Amino acid sequence: MKIADNFSRLGTENAFVILAKAKKLESEGREIINLGIGQPDFLTPKHIVEAGKKALDDGHHGYTPANGTQELRDGVSRHIKKMYGAEIDSARVFIAPGGKPSMYFAIMMFGQPGTEIIYPEPGFPIYESVINYTGAKAIPMYLSEKKNFSFNADEVLSLINDKTRLLIINNPQNPTGGLIDKNEIDKLVQGLKKYPEVAILSDEIYSRQIYDGKKMPSFFYYPELYDRLIVMDGWSKTYAMTGWRLGWSVWPESLIDKVTRMAINSYSCVSAANQVAALAALEGPHDFLDDMMEKFDKRRELIVNGLNSLPGIKCNNPGGAFYTFPNVSETGMSGDTFAEKCLYDAGVALVPGTSFGKSCTNFVRFSFANSYENIEKALEKIKKIL
Predict the structure, then answer these.
(1) 101-134: per-residue pLDDT in tens?
(2) 217 in Cβ contact with 171 (< 8 Å)
(3) CB atoms within 10 A of CB 69
(4) Beta bridge partners of 38
(5) Which fold does the domain 46-283 belong to in CATH?
(6) N or C: which end of the chain has fewer CB within 10 A?
(7) DSSP string covering 156-206, please?
(8) Edge-to-edge strand order for the sheet containing 323-324?
(9) Whole-prediction pTM value?
């Protein structure tokens, strides 16, 4: 068989490769502490689970509109109004099975040979993977460790030319936990006025995981961009619903029919019962979120201080998400070697920095979406092998 040539350009997400290795070691009797996979270790709140169960009992098990049920899209519209004060017509809301489809569809929509798409590095690996798959040129926007992995708006704007079709922003960031300051976003938005043909994809999936009392600098605060702005968020991280596969995004009026057509051509629609549960998540009590973030904040302090106490490791304090991205070069090991040694010698699963960009050889990603006790134990195990 001969498959299409462009398939060779499609990458993967190594967090799942690491997860498979960790599971194999566990099946062989090894104790593995997984600080690699990026999913909250909390149970989905009970009222959400009950809403999903009731939906099935009530017969919500058929097809739904490809862009999501009207009830859920209205709910997302109300949520955006509550969070950011933005008036978003629910006709522009798109419901997908997770965040990735919106990301994939946006990149596929704008990427083709002869065009360029700007993406963050370090960054979620699927950005570069899908850009390459389309035949577009992937242009990295380098995020500096010295700037706590924020960006400089002038540097980003300098990457734009007449071939640029899409600019991808992720805030707060995976894998670094970096939080881009609103002042830099203000400068970027001002500069983008010179480039009206460039679309923006703002990946805000970690919008509710922000520390130190700071507010989410969402792109919803910039209505002047709405005619070319795609904002992506979802339920996975905020509501501990990674396996439910639920995401939402907001699209320009001119593109919503196109992205809906892409859904029809691929997965048809999102599970009906899951959409009922998703609405319950948006409209139900949010006390659990305060408790979750309090625990994440304590873990953040533990892992940052713990890593910085280890020989040869330098770790920035993340402003959002639940990741740290320490520099391990002074251990004498690359990030790849360090991660492998941690897995096989210490029984701690991490993701090497090269999974998030070629420039990230000195780094590894730790997820602190694990218990305080397990993080303490993991730090002790790593200390021993160093």
Answers:
(1) 999 999 999 999 999 999 999 999 999 999 999 9
(2) yes
(3) 19
(4) none
(5) Aspartate Aminotransferase; domain 2 (3.40.640)
(6) N
(7) HHHT--TTEEEEEEESS-TTT-----HHHHHHHHHHHTT-TT-EEEEE-TT
(8) 323-324, 364-367, 351-352
(9) 0.95
